[in-house]
Amino acid sequence: PGSQIAxxxxxxxxxxxxxxxxxxxxxxxARVSIxxxxxxxxxxxxxxxxxxxxxxxxxxxxxxxxxxxxxxGVADHYHIPRTLxxxxxxxxxxxxxxxRNVPGGSRPAHLGTPDGALNAIEPxxxxxxxxxxxxxxxxxxxxxxxxxxxxxxxxxxxxxxxQPTKAxxxxxxxxxxxxxERGDPRRxxxxxxxxxxxxxxxxxxxxxxxxxxxxxxxxxxxxxxKVTYHSSCAPLGTPFANRRS
Length: 245
Known about the structure:
Elements: E1 4-9, E2 15-19, H1 21-30, E3 37-42, H2 46-55, H3 65-72, H4 74-78, H5 82-96, H6 114-121, H7 125-135, H8 141-147, H9 150-162, H10 164-176, H11 185-195, H12 202-217
């Protein structure tokens, strides 16, 4: 009793519940009367209403990635599959952090909010769509899911932005692995992502993608993909190459 529920109020005075769905559902099921404090927030547009919804409880009870993306209509606006949009949402954070997986407590505060995460990925959505078109050619569903991991996508988006032609050829080769000789970095990365448990270790996965890209970009063979503790994710031909160790 006395807790707050919130509504967005549109110009035509229609109200939309933006915080308190579970508590009101509990009231209905319990068939009891509960006194709530009401917060009415004017919203000029539907975009304002959607933004208001995902901003609620950003610290204590964060909205899920799916809810945030659905609220702003990213998948529909950019014609991107929802699973790809979800992975990109987190890939944008890796890019904003310098292609590093920084623990949540050590990240800049603004990247811990839905607004911060959306702002981080905003300029990358066209490259997300391009990457989605590339990996759609892969007819192996399990491997395609690996290619849609946030850590793989972070490196892919950066290379597609700064080296669009080379990156399209590289990632298409990784996705398809057709008639490539041993030592081709694209084949080596394909095998590594398929056979090794890199996925789930985001930093190692980003470094592996960067190592394979750098070898291919430089015209070198790569028969064994090694990721060391001191390695950096620094893809050549991009601004991130300056951090190469």
